[in-house]
Amino acid sequence: MQPTDDILAIAERWRGEGREVALATVVETWGSAPRPVGSHLVVDGAGAFLGSVSGGCVEGEVVTEALDVIASGTPRLLEFGVTDETAWRAGLSCGGRIKVYVERVQ
Questions:
Q1: Average pLDDT value for residue range 20-49
Q2: Residues in domain XdhC- CoxI (predicted)?
Q3: Is the model's pLDDT at 8 over the cut of 70?
Q4: Cα–Cα distance measured from residue 37 to residue 98, given in angstroms and rounded to the nearest whole number
């Protein structure tokens, strides 16, 4: 994983290149979540991404949601864990729970 500063610099560089960009940030964890609060994933409008919010457990779902955030401009708070409705689609194999805030980078 890239250090946080590198991910934020990448988001700014991509914006400077004219790409549409969203930033996903871990804002809350519980249990054995694989990434700490403050971890980032940056996504461009074509679906390219760098960073990690879950060590590979939910990145695909976060990228999909980030593309929707880029299109709509509306941020959203995502919650993943083994007991919610996303568990069959995307879940944390470690059994923890995380909340990820996704916002468009302007």
A1: 92
A2: 14-81
A3: yes
A4: 9
Other CB atoms within 10 Å distance of the CB of residue 66:
28
Write out pLDDT tens, residues 63-100: 999 999 999 999 999 998 765 555 445 555 556 788 99
**Residues facing residue 68 across a β-bridge:** none
| Residues 39 and 56: beta-carbon distance below 8 Å | no
Question: What pLDDT score was predicted for residue 31?
Answer: 76
Q: How far apart are CA 101 and CA 98, in angstroms?
A: 10
- Of the candidates 52, 24, 33, which has an alpha carbon nearest to the alpha carbon of residue 92? 33
What was the pLDDT predicted at 40? Answer: 95
Place of tokens 């519980």: 30
Q: Which domain holds residue 34?
A: 4-105
Residue corresponding to tokens 């940030």: 25
Q: How many domains does the chain fold into?
A: 1
